[in-house]
Design a protein that fits this description.
35% of the residues lie in helices and 12% in strands. It has helices at 33-36, 53-71, 88-97, 126-139, 152-171, 191-201, 206-210, 239-244, 249-260; strands at 23-28, 78-84, 106-111, 182-189, 220-225, 231-232. Strand 2 (78-84), helix 3 and strand 3 (106-111) form a beta-alpha-beta unit. Helix 2 (53-71) crosses helix 3 and helix 5 (152-171) crosses helix 6. 37% of the residues are buried.
């Protein structure tokens, strides 16, 4: 593998990371009218649901906070590239956030339909939506198919396609052609979509995904590049916040290991947590004996 080339688990060879974006930031849209009143789902197409005034204010504040986070302690050549879900509430969130970013700092904006929200079908009355949400919790959010809509697994497939496209663009130095440039990718999306993105990026299992919690409206999650060439949530988010989002202690320790390198190891003595390792036989001197 050539220096700096991204691996399938979202990590990098440590010898050259100069062309890699410094951060990938996931932002959930601001409060929308359906968050405030579930009856909106029965009269407005999901993709046309708009932000409330509170959501607009949230998005504006989030833009200010993220701009400060990016620009503080940065070189004078920092840039941002935005991806946005095609829903009205995410597009409006981007517009309000964008007030904090001078045009000269923006490399580009791409509407990314693969980062759209889970489809709940068409119009729904509040009672049916509540029933669906209760069934999803008992059945499992990953496999449950919303009547007339999608499964979480279907969302995973399309977001996986986006993640692989993003990785290829990073490998081709689309975002960092100038080694002195400090690039930040900001993805304005939805609650479930952000969880699925993290699941794919960090190779989390379905069981780990099921324990994750949705982030609040206009809340954001920062994946920052460490010196070892891996992205981690542990740079900007403490244990309390990661636990609030549903990460287990092992997942949190893994994030710290990704952030700070081989010196940080989890309780199994490795930076990687592989499932099913407990089903194999213990090592022994007789393992190569022919029976």
């Amino acid at each position: 593998m050539s220096p700096g080339k991204m691996q399938t688990n979202g990590t990098h060879n440590i010898t050259n990371t100069t062309h890699l974006p410094k951060r990938i930031i996931l932002v959930r849209h601001g409060e929308c009218s359906a968050n405030a009143d579930i009856n909106v789902y029965g009269t407005t197409p999901n993709h046309m649901i708009e932000l409330t005034q509170k959501g607009i204010e949230q998005a504006t504040q989030t833009g200010t906070i993220i701009k400060k986070l990016i620009s503080e302690n940065a070189n004078n050549n920092w840039k941002v590239f935005f991806y946005v879900s095609p829903a009205e509430r995410t597009r409006r969130t981007l517009r309000e956030m964008g007030r904090s970013f001078p045009k000269r700092r923006v490399m580009g904006v791409k509407e990314e339909y693969r980062m759209r929200e889970l489809s709940f079908g068409n119009y729904h009355d509040p009672a049916s939506i509540q029933k669906v949400k209760e069934e999803r919790l008992t059945y499992g959010r990953f496999y449950y198919r919303v009547p007339g809509g999608e499964t979480g697994a279907g969302v995973y497939d399309r977001i996986s396609s986006f993640v692989e496209s993003l990785r290829r663009d990073i490998e081709m130095k689309k975002f960092c052609q100038d080694p002195s440039q400090e690039t930040n990718i900001i993805i304005v999306t939805h609650g479930l979509s952000s969880r699925i993105f993290l699941m794919k990026w960090f190779d989390w299992t379905i069981e780990q995904f099921e324990d994750l919690n949705r982030i609040k409206t206009s809340e954001f999650q920062v994946l920052q590049l460490g010196k070892g060439g891996e992205y981690s949530l542990a740079f900007h988010h403490d244990d309390k916040k990661l636990q609030e989002w549903g990460l287990s202690l092992d997942m949190i320790e893994n994030q710290k290991c990704r952030a700070y390198g081989p010196a940080r190891v989890n309780r199994q003595g490795t930076c990687d947590v592989y499932p099913f390792m407990d089903c194999f036989a213990e090592d022994s001197d007789e393992e190569n004996t022919i029976i």
